[in-house]
Each structure stands twice: as structure tokens, then as C-alpha cells.
Amino acid sequence: MKLGIVGLPNVGKSTLFNAITQAGAESANYPFCTIEPNVGVVSVPDERLDKLQEIYNSKKQVHTAIEFYDIAGLVKGASNGEGLGNKFLSHIREVESIVHVVRCFEDENIVHVDGSVDPIRDIETINLELILSDLEVLERRMEKALKLVRSGDKVAKEQYSIMEKIKVQLEANKPARTLELTDDEQNFVKGLFLITSKPVLYAANLSENDLAEGNIENDFVKKVRAFAEAENSGVITVCARLEEELSGLEEEEKAELLGEYGLSESGLDKLIKASYKLLGLMSYLTAGVQEVRAWTIKIGTKAPAAAGKIHSDIERGFIRAEVISYDKLVECGSESVAKEKGHYRLEGKEYIMQDGDVVNFRFNV
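^ that's the sequence the OP posted. Answer follows.
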């Protein structure tokens, strides 16, 4: 899963990104590596792997991973090459979802680029730059498609019609994701790689004072929630400064510091959970002596396609899936006891995978 983090200068975007990547570097729960200076890979925490490793006495755990892209240089005019916008907009086209960090705190020591704190204005500034960039991409694509349309190509005509609808939406300063499309139209739009067609999670960045005073739902946050609800986007509250402090701590110290603020989980954990929900994702599990592993799939994925996540040969030669729920396996304490009690099921090609399924795929190629 790839997430692009965007935001205006001085809203806490880089602090949050650095805290996330530092957390990964320092904690065994979040193994991290740097692909480029602005890309970090963090593994997704999943406590179920700990228990499965105990049951199977496995040599190692393999978590599913998220790539975070820090999209730098987005300022007013980025679509025209201001700041570093153009350079990094190509990176964001490849991500599956956008995390938009917005400043929801007052602090006279941290200058805002527009002179005052207004999260909705900030959102609209970034949105406009992304819309303008998408318009440029779309117009080039439409220009190419027009030749085929004029030659009488029916498919090209249908696709051109979809692009016209999107163009009208963008010209009205509305992101492509807010346009209602059929499933077929959505599939075509994915291939356009429009930034504004991607789902967005707004990260409302609070100050440590807001947390200490229990002012998590301040007026700024309420405005962001209302804006996000209107376009069917997600919202989480984070404190980038706190995440920065947490990144260098051991697990016990982290829990203690979070507890002081009345929090039960870090911003990183909230960010991962909210991203999974926004993208409609879940995990199934495989377990054995060599390793226990989590695999991320879309909710509603059938068994053969899930098997394909491991290897295309397993999908191609799929016969059956041997399945037990994680909870049932833990309740039994071992695979042998679970089998004795008849809790394993053999599922066929139409089986829709469930979150926490522990699976062994039978296949033949």
C-alpha cells in the first residue's frame, strides 16, 4: 500500500513524516527502510502474528507494509512549477491514497505561509493545485483520444465522454473523487492516474497544549470534519510533535506518555487503521514453522485472487483453501486440536475471504 503525505509548509507534514519513519527505524514493531529521502516503508502492526508465532513456534514474522511518500514543495502555484511541486507531483500519481496534513492549532512561533490558521483555506489551496495538475494531464489524454473518436472508435468515444464529465468537474474546482461514476467508469478512471480521484484522509494536526487540555475536537478540527464528511473523506486527529517524541521511545515508555495525554494509541496506529478503512482493505494470515505472515487484500476478495497475492501459480492452480478463523485457532491453542474439533473448513473458488482467516491454499500447476 502506498500513501502520499501532502500539506502546505509549516502545517506539521514533514514532522509527522519524519516521526513515522523514525518510529519505524527504532522500533521492532515497525521495521523501516529508506528507499529515497522522501520515501519510507513502515510495517503494519498486527498483534495476531505474535500469537500465531507462539502457536507454530515460527522462526520469523513478516508484516504487510505501507510506503509513505513525503510529497514536498506543494505551495500555491505548484501546478505551474512554483516551489518543488511539479517535481513531486509525479510521485503522488502512483499512490493509492492521500494523507492531507492540515494545521489545526495556533502558535505565534510557527509562521503560517498565509499569515493565519485556516484549515479549510489550506485544504482548498492544495486541492486547487492538484486539480490544475489533473486538468493538464486530462487535456493531454483527451487530445490523444480525439483522433480515435473522429475515426469512429466506439470505445474511444465512451472513454472520451467519461473524460469530458471529469473535465467539467475539475473546471468547477471539484476533485474527481467527488464525481459519481459507475463501476466500469471507475475502472477506466483508475488508468488515468488522476491525483484528485484518489481517496483522501485528512490528518488534523493538533498542538500538545490541545491534547493536554483535552481540546482534541477544537473549532478547526470541527471544520475539517464537516468538510471531509461533505466529500466522503476520512479524518483523524494527530499531534506531529507528540509523534516525534514517541518515535524515540521504547514500547513501555510510549504507552506511559500516551497515557499522560489520555490516549490509547499513537497517531501512526490511527493513520494505518484509518487508511485500511478508507481503502476497504483487510488482512488474511498464513502460518507455519518457517514464518507467520499477514497479506493485505481488498474486502470482498475471493480465495483464488487472495492466493495470487502469494504467487500467481497458486491462483492459477487453485484447488481449495483450508481455512480457520484466527480467533478459533487461538481458542483451540494448536492446529492439531483445531482439526480434531473440526474447525478447519475446505472452501472453493467462490469463497470470499474474511479478515483474520488463517489459510493454507491447495493448488496444482
